[in-house]
Structure formats: C-alpha cells, structure tokens
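Quick illustration for those who missed Monday's session on complexes.
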Amino acid sequence: MTIQRPLIAGNWKMNGLRRDAVARVTDLAARARADGPGCDMAVCPPASLLYSLAEALDGSAVALGGQDCHMAESGAHTGDISAAMLADAGCSYAIVGHSERRADHGEIDPLVRAKAEAAHGAGLIAIVCLGESEAMRDAEEALDVVQGQLKQSLPPGAEADNTVVAYEPIWAIGTGRTPTLEQIAEVHGHLRALLEANGQGDIRLLYGGSVKPSNARDILAVANVNGALVGGASLAVDDFWAICQSCPD
Ligand code: PEP
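Prediction with phosphoenolpyruvate bound:
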C-alpha cells in the first residue's frame, strides 16, 4: 500500500474578498515556489473567487478546490454550482459533506455520495467529510458513526486518485478544541482498516477540526493521518504555511 504525500487543504468557508484573497494566495504560491513543502496544498475559497484565484495560482504548487458541488451537471438549481463548473473554473478538488453543509442544508450521506460521484465525473478529487457530534462521542458512538458515514458517503469507484476522506469531529470545528492524539489515532486506524477491507487502503485520511500551527506537527505525526483540512487557520498565510511545513518528512 502506497499512500501519496500528505494533503493540506484550506477551507475558507464564506470568507474572502477578491483583492485580499488574490494577495493571500500569491503570497502562498511564492512561499511554495521558494521552499516547496513536503505536502500537496489546496485552497478552497468561496465560488466567487475561483476564477481570480485560478489565475493567481496558475503554474503554482497550490491547487484550487470548491467547497461543495451539486450532484447534477446543470439545470434548475438556483444558487448551486456543479462539479463541471468547478473544473471549468480551474479546480482539482471539491469538498463534499462538510458538517456545515450537513447541518445548514440538511445534507445526508446518500446526497454526499452523489455529490462525490459528480465530482469524480468532472475529474475532480472529492474531499469527503465525516465526523461525529459531541453527543455521539460522549455516548461512545464515534467509531460506529464514522463507519456508517464512510460506508454510505463513498461512491463506487472511490480510490486514492479521486478521493480523500476528512475526519472532522463536529465538536472540534471552529471551537479550538481537538480530540486527544489517541482519539484521532483510534478513529483514523478504524477508517484505515475499513478502507483496506474494501481494497481502498491507500485513500488519504485527513484530520480536520481546530488544526493550527501549535498542534499541527503532533496531529500530522499520528498514524494514518495523511494531512489536514484546515478552516480558520487557513485564512492567515503565516498559519497555513506553518501547518504545511509541519508535515512529517
Ligand atoms: C473545517 O471547517 O473544515 C475546519 C476544520 O475548521 P477549523 O479548522 O476552523 O476548525
């Protein structure tokens, strides 16, 4: 089993206006050019910024991703964006199933799976998010919950070249709280075993939830953690870059 190098992906959520965003990724791309980190890098800005950032990142080591995509290729879906549109705008990745989409838009596993499939159809790498709530963790259901989500959210044909799984405990997102390293190792070990049993053992497993420069090195060194999905800390170039540089050699 060969796992690709780690991926550090920044989820900007609903943040960023053009001038500042272009300056931010231009700075990031310059750092990557001068001192390439030992990881793949991606930024996932709001859809309004994709074309401008694609231009700014052209030829750089920093890839672009969308934060969501619709399951259909086109049609009467006001406010949505298709995977083909993301690809057309220069994206290589699409986040699907983020807990904020699940909570704010009622997205459930079969829909996440259809979105991941649509991403694959457009030639994108789907970053499929899953993770337990605090109540589920307290009830010692975390492993069962992520197992169910993994089974139901990954489409047929998911493999290392088109899919990344991000374990993001909901209670750790944007809270400054993180699971212990042992808890991360337990969930990632469980997910890895499930993927292996399905012949998908080389799919990268990211951890997400309050990753910052001060905890990145420890988290990224945990067994079966193959990178991070970073929210708040991806908005500051210094922090995001420090996290990229924390990947194990
Ligand atoms: C996220 O939203 O995917 C995330 C991990 O956010 P944060 O890093 O801010 O917790």
